[in-house]
Amino acid sequence: MNRWWIAPMLRRTIRTQVRRGLAGVWVRGGPPEGGAVLAPNHHSFWDGYLLAELAWQAGQPLRVMMTSRQLDRFPFLQLIGARPPGQLRSLARDAGAGYWIGVFPEGAIQAAGPLQALQPGAGWLAQIARVPLVPVAIRVVVRAGPGPEAFLRFGTPCLTSELPSQLAAVLQALDADLSSADPERPPAGYLLRVTGLGARPDEVTLAVRWLTRLSGFGRTEAAPELPVPAHGRMRP
């Protein structure tokens, strides 16, 4: 069966989902050029899509390790770079050939919060392929607007032994950036990489003002007197 058309269709579908499902994607820092192992926390459905979006924007080939369970459910994702854990050596060769390899060292989606215990696959791949190991913090959050926003912060390349502390540190830094920022604005230093179709706070504000004026609740003139009943003036 000729499946050449499926991969472009999947890419278009995923990119459309990112733009329709998120109000925007903001990024601070970036991975090195060429091959690298990206090691993000994994606390949302969107994490793999976000790595793919950034890779496609950069024209960078990408592989993302997925659990065998997830690939059994979505086997077609292998056509756009998803790989099972049993292909570590193949992923190492791809990293050495210049691919970004996304490995979620927590192993599976975890509840949003502190970093969970890490598995060794990401560090092993980086060592074997002799490419940088880059911790990446990801948060998908609802703030002032009605739609979720995605924020990614790339750390500096680190040693395998340093990954737990470095990934925890960059995640804490991202959380601190978000907690200290005006919720209607991105944190300082984050660049908009994807403009989503979700309503932005300024659009919501305009809609509220329009509805307020249209309904009359925002008028400043004196309120009209109460109507006079047919049988006489109303008592206060």
UniProtKB/TrEMBL annotation:
Superkingdom of origin: Bacteria
Presence of the UniProt keyword ATP-binding in the record: no
Ranges for domain Phospholipid/glycerol acyltransferase: 36-141
Keywords from the named record: Acyltransferase, Transferase
Molecular functions per Gene Ontology: acyltransferase activity
Pfam (any one): Acyltransferase
Name of this protein: 1-acyl-sn-glycerol-3-phosphate acyltransferase
